[in-house]
Amino acid sequence: MRVLTFALALIFSLFFAPSQAAQVNKIAATVNGQVITMFDLQKEALPEFARARINPGDPAKSKETREIFQRVLDMMILDILVAQEAKRLKATVSDSEIDAEITRVMKERRMTKKQCEEQLAKQKLTPAALRKTIEKSVLRQKVMAMEVGRRVIVTPDEISKYYEANKDKLYKKDGLHMGVLVYSPKADAQAIAARIRAKTMSFEEACAKYSIAPNKDKGGDAGPVEWNRLNPEWEERLNNMRPGDVTEIFNLQGHKAQVRLFRPGGGEEKPMSLQEAAPQIDAILRAPKARGRFEDYSKQLRNKAVIDVRL
To answer: Is the pTM higher than 0.85?
Structure first.
């Protein structure tokens, strides 16, 4: 514990000006009486600064620094509110659930334990910090399922209408993979995306040359898409794609990124009947409703809470 505290203090001394480093024990916010110190906030924000390659002590990056701190603090506040709700709902996360989620993520990204540890080191994260992050994520999913998911309703009539209007676009999605291209901060993402769009460079070539994501030498292949485990944002993005499609550039944890949907080895698209398409349509229609409910629920939690932000 002393070694970890010393290491963090050393990192902060490198990142922050002396006047800022002296403020680490000041309060950044309180949430229903629970304190978030500047030390907590800085520690939580370190991976974000590392990913964005920003030195928060650089006056020229003051705007970006504040935006990162605010974004991280908002998530920390939400995590506290969710944890407090979880206690009320008696929702917990076991060690085995955390292990299973870490295994799933590693399998999805085709990473070995060693590769995972190397990736954590690059992001200045310890295995214990990863477990804590996974625990928060799983707990958030549980609470959202209990308090949000059950309130999201998609009717058979909505599914039928969607099918009739889009049946020529509905096809069987088994066996589809997702390729992820996460641009290096030094890469001209817009220019490269334009070349991918113009088909003068393949997605696989772009991954090999410019991606910092795992499996870049395999076309960024993140493995088969697990449609029932996607979060609403990714579900909506992928549900609107056909095999071979590549998304526009979007923000992924502080980096510019693109995703490609593909079927290894090719193969024709097979149309789906209404019965076969119903689960897929349900997911398509449910995603925006769930996101809206999540935003409403988050606002309700914040409105009921006593929050004092001093950032």
So the answer is: no
